[in-house]
Amino acid sequence: GIQVEQSPPDLILQEGANSTLRCNFSDSVNNLQWFHQNPWGQLINLFYIPSGTKQNGRLSATTVATERYSLLYISSSQTTDSGVYFCAVDSTASKLTFGTGTRLQVTL
Amino acid sequence: DTGVSQDPRHKITKRGQNVTFRCDPISEHNRLYWYRQTLGQGPEFLTYFQNEAQLEKSRLLSDRFSAERPKGSFSTLEIQRTEQGDSAMYLCASSVSTPADEQYFGPGTRLTVT
């Protein structure tokens, strides 16, 4: 099956800093989603981005499908950005395969 | 729209007991998915339905697990003869298959088997 790798596994930032999270995948995809999992376990949709670039406030994402990677940019980080960020891909028009996540901690 | 809901949110059971979880998808979403997440890992796919048809099951879904979506709306996931290794967060998601199959997740049911 498709493999998904995320980096870095852990990231500690001071409030106000910027960061880039990376997702590499091993095969062509129909679907790529970025999620933020909050401390209560809820997965919050950030982007549906099988290709191209999207922006939503302080967050933006870019997927280069031909090179099989996606990037999530977080600018001016806030403590509420803390949590785990997951990239998930779908190559079969059905199930999502998740990476192992990037654990982000934003400190004051 | 209130989003995907799951019930119960937490379940503690003794090994060997049966448990059943419920998922209500976003209305008019024709696809419904079940995933399992253990500590420190990303969610893993278990099974999915398109309307009432169960179209795919993971190898993770042993014969002790069964899922149904009888009228193409809510779904149930039953685990029989629970084992300690079944302790996990069980997540439900739903989507519309077209034009974009973006999945939306519920809050999950956290199962603890003692």
What can you see in these coordinates?
The mean pLDDT of chain A is 96. Chain A is built from no helices and eleven strands. Chain A is mainly β and 108 residues long. In chain A, a hairpin with a 2-residue loop joins β6 and β7. Helices cover 0% and strands 49% of the residues of chain B. In chain B, the strands form two sheets. In chain B, strands 2, 4, 5, 6, 9, 10 and 11 form a seven-stranded mixed β-sheet that branches. A four-stranded antiparallel β-sheet of chain B has the order 1-3-8-7, with no helix packed on it. Chain A binds chain B through residues 30-31, 33, 35, 40-43, 45, 48, 86, 88, 90, 93-101, and chain B through 33, 35, 37, 41-45, 48, 55-56, 58, 89, 91, 93, 97, 100-105, 107-108, 110.
Write the layout of secondary structure elements.
The complex is a heterodimer of chains A (108) and B (114).
Chain A: E1 4-7, E2 10-14, E3 19-25, E4 31-37, E5 43-48, E6 52-56, E7 59-64, E8 69-74, E9 83-90, E10 97-98, E11 102-107
Parallel strand pairs in A: 2-11
Antiparallel strand pairs in A: 1-3, 3-8, 4-5, 4-9, 6-7, 7-8, 9-10, 9-11
Chain B: E1 5-7, E2 10-13, E3 19-24, E4 31-37, E5 44-50, E6 53-57, E7 65-68, E8 75-79, E9 88-95, E10 104-105, E11 109-113
Parallel strand pairs in B: 2-11
Antiparallel strand pairs in B: 1-3, 3-8, 4-5, 4-9, 5-6, 7-8, 9-10, 9-11
